[in-house]
């Protein structure tokens, strides 16, 4: 070790003047970074800042290295089932974006905690328990992916941008490594789940895991099916169905809709520039709908920023940002601490306890990293749905019926394109004596359901979403 440090000192001594302001420990950390290469970690969390008392469930956080030389470090939150973790299903939850942290799922959609909605006063936002957590009946891995999302990071400069297909392979690798460290879960029924943009990734991941079970990877993952909410599936289908959705919801007039159908011929997103009449109609359409909050058209449109009004729905995301960027929260979650080193080509030093790693990272946690460099190389996930159906994997596809990002009409259209017979036709599904939505099931073991009054993710109707999931995962009709 001393010889190696001497060699490193010899190499960088000409640059020593750049580091005169560094303390000896920090300088040694810079040297030791070249000698260390395993950042996998796991931590049991009993208390979280902002939550009163010990956590009423078992939470683990950590990093697992994947990819070439494990340069990509994927961060996860793992919550054990609160019922019977030895036998209950195990889920991985992937949020959308791409680039939206899985903390969205944990704190707003189907996790056991949420941020208390109150006006920010400069102190740490509070966390409170929920009544609708899917962890009541299943264990869930909430994964920050792709690299650059949430607290996930790369230790070195990436040769290629993250992508759909590349992410699928890295998540598959993550799962095998995670299960290797948690072998007690290898026999649990395993489900892939997510919403929004993860509709491009989840079906491909299901196929990747299924193929891997036969071809490469032992022990096999006990894959049993998948769950998707308001999924992006094929842009041309999903986006073009926004116009008939807008008409059905009385957002545009009959006359405008009939003209658009006749002149645009169903192509509303990628209009031929020579079709000037259609372009004018699309412009009129946007005058009607651009003032809407597409994720949930019943709520006012507000920009998601730190000066958002507490009256806005997205204010909860502001509170999450304050919470996740608090130093006490990062310490509790055992998040990599970034020390900026502008004159060092590696860009950052990362210190976890006494371990040291390279990092290229955002200096501030953001819920969704919208400017993430990314390659969208899966153009349609319909073929993956088809292959997964042929392989016999059940699926639950659900849509909040007030989502205009991925309107349920588009989801129904690609499901119809699979050409599977209906075995249980359109009917209401009930909670007590009230209609909670509508459902239909197919011969390919696919169940489609709407959530009445729901939006783009389960967060808009979390109680109903939980009951729907509970019935489906238990093999019961909705």
Automatic annotation (TrEMBL):
SUPFAM superfamilies, A to Z: alpha/beta-Hydrolases
Signal sequence residues: 1-18
Keywords associated with the record: Signal
Domain of life: Eukaryota
Xref: Pfam families: Peptidase_S10
PANTHER family assigned to the protein according to its UniProt record, in alphabetical order: SERINE CARBOXYPEPTIDASE-LIKE 7, SERINE PROTEASE FAMILY S10 SERINE CARBOXYPEPTIDASE
Family assignment from sequence similarity: Belongs to the peptidase S10 family.
Entry protein name: Serine carboxypeptidase-like 7
């Amino acid at each position: 070790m001393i010889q190696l440090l001497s060699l490193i000192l010899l190499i960088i001594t000409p640059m020593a003047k750049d580091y005169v302001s560094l303390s000896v420990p920090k300088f040694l950390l810079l040297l030791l970074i070249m000698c260390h290469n395993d950042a996998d970690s796991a931590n049991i969390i009993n208390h979280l800042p902002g939550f009163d008392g010990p956590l009423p469930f078992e939470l683990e956080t950590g990093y697992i290295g994947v990819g070439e030389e494990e340069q990509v470090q994927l961060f996860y939150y793992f919550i054990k089932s609160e019922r019977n973790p030895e036998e209950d299903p195990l889920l991985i939850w992937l949020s959308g974006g791409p680039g939206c942290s899985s903390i969205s799922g944990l704190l707003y959609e189907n996790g056991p905690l949420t941020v208390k909605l109150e006006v920010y006063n400069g102190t740490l936002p509070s966390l409170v328990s929920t009544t609708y957590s899917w962890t009541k009946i299943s264990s869930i891995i909430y994964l920050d992916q792709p690299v650059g999302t949430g607290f996930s990071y790369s230790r070195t400069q990436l040769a290629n941008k993250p992508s759909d297909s590349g992410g699928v392979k890295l998540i598959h690798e993550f799962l095998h490594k995670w299960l290797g460290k948690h072998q007690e879960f290898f026999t649990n029924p395993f489900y892939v789940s997510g919403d929004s943009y993860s509709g491009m990734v989840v079906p491909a991941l299901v196929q990747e895991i299924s193929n891997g079970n036969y071809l490469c990877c032992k022990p096999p993952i006990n894959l049993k099916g998948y769950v998707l909410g308001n999924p992006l599936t094929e842009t041309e289908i999903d986006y073009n169905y926004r116009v008939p959705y807008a008409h059905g919801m009385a957002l545009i007039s009959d006359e405008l809709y009939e003209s658009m159908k006749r002149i645009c011929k169903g192509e509303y997103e990628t209009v031929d520039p020579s079709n000037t009449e259609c372009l004018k109609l699309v412009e009129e359409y946007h005058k009607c709908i651009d003032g809407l909050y597409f994720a949930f058209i019943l709520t006012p449109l507000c920009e998601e920023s730190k000066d958002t009004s507490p009256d806005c729905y997205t204010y909860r995301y502001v509170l999450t940002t304050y919470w996740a960027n608090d130093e006490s929260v990062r310490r509790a979650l055992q998040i990599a601490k970034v020390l900026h080193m502008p004159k060092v080509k590696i860009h950052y030093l990362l210190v976890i306890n006494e371990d040291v790693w390279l990092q290229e990272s955002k200096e501030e946690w953001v819920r969704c990293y919208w400017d993430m460099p990314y390659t969208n190389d899966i153009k349609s996930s319909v073929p993956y749905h088809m292959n997964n159906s042929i392989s016999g994997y059940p699926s639950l596809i659900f849509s909040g019926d007030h989502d205009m990002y991925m309107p349920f009409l588009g989801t129904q259209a690609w499901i119809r394109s699979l050409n599977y017979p209906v075995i249980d036709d359109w009917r209401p599904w009930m909670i007590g004596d009230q209609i909670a939505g509508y459902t239909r099931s197919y011969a390919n073991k696919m169940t489609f359901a709407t959530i009445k009054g729901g939006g783009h993710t389960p967060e808009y109707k979390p109680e109903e979403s939980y009951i729907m999931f509970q019935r489906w995962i238990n093999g019961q009709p909705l």
